[in-house]
Structure formats: structure tokens, C-alpha cells
Design brief:
Blueprint lengths: L7 E4 L4 E7 L1 E5 L4 E5 L3 E6 L6 E6 L4 E6 L3 E6 L4 E5 L3 E5 L7 H13 L5 H14 L4 H8 L4 H4 L1
Antiparallel strand pairs: 1-2, 1-10, 2-8, 3-4, 3-7, 5-6, 5-10, 6-7, 8-9
């Protein structure tokens, strides 16, 4: 994996951690409390002078703001160590290849299953569907590739 695909967490003390946020986050918004899988985050920024207030960009580019219930985030570093980071110390988290939500993963898997269909039209339709979903499918496709027959891998 090259550096452009690595998730990074920039801290207020100018440290830069390479690793992924893990676990479930509870975000209190003006309307409701959202449960967010940390793997589905594209970006998380602490709002300046906002204490626990953050702005979150999800895998599908939707943006929500609110206050995290937990005062710390869990970050699994590239070295394999998991560390707890106080939200007050976080400047910005960036994940260039976030995982899609479970419903989207199901759609991706269904389309991948069609890539090995006997009918070429069905295979082409599945390829077009995956392409139209955009780059969010990449991480799921990488996970599924090894278990697919040669036609679907191609």
C-alpha cells in the first residue's frame, strides 16, 4: 500500500499517525444521535474551539456535524498497535479509501456475483453497475477478488 492510500490522523501537537480509526462512534447531532462505523469515515475534523464538536464526512461524501459522546477515539496504527487518542487532540483524520456501509457492500457483492454469469449481457451490466458506484467499491472488490473465478477477477 502506498502513502496515498494510507489513513492518517493529524494531531494538535503536530504528530501525524498512520492508521485507521476503529470501533463505533456515537455522534450527537441537532436532530438525533448517529451510530457511525469508524471504518466508513472518509474524514473527521475537530471544529476549532468546539471541544468535542466534529465534522464528519462519510464514505458516500455526506457531511454531518455534532458532538462525539466518547472523549477519545481508537486508532489502529499501521504497526498493529491500537492507541486511544483524546478528541481534543485531534485536528483531522483522512481515510482515502473508506469502507462502504453494509447495504452498499451487499449491492457490490450481488453485482460481483453477476460478473461470472453465462450471459455476456449480464456480465456487462454488472460491470457497468460497479463502475457507476465509483471508487467506494475498490476496498470491497479487493477483498472479494481472491474468492472469485477467473472471469470475475478479470
Amino acid at each position: 500500500m502506498d502513502d496515498s492510500e494510507s489513513a492518517t490522523l493529524a494531531l494538535a501537537n503536530d504528530d501525524l499517525l498512520v492508521g485507521n480509526l476503529t470501533g463505533a462512534l456515537k455522534l450527537d447531532t441537532a436532530f438525533d444521535t448517529l451510530s457511525i462505523n469508524a471504518g466508513e469515515l472518509r474524514k473527521l475534523m475537530r471544529v476549532k474551539e468546539g471541544g468535542m464538536d466534529v465534522q464528519v464526512t462519510l464514505w458516500d461524501a455526506s457531511v454531518v456535524s455534532g458532538q462525539l459522546q466518547d472523549p477519545s477515539l481508537q486508532c489502529r496504527l499501521a504497526s498493529g498497535v491500537t492507541v486511544s487518542i483524546p478528541v481534543a487532540l485531534v485536528e483531522e483524520y483522512n481515510q482515502p479509501t473508506p469502507a462502504p456501509a453494509a447495504g452498499m457492500v451487499d449491492k457490490i457483492k450481488a453485482a460481483v456475483a453477476q460478473l461470472n454469469a453465462d450471459d455476456w449481457k449480464t456480465r456487462d451490466r454488472a460491470e457497468q453497475e460497479l463502475t457507476s458506484m465509483g471508487p467506494v467499491v475498490i476496498s470491497t472488490l479487493k477483498e472479494l477478488r481472491a474468492s472469485q473465478p477467473p472471469e470475475a477477477q478479470q
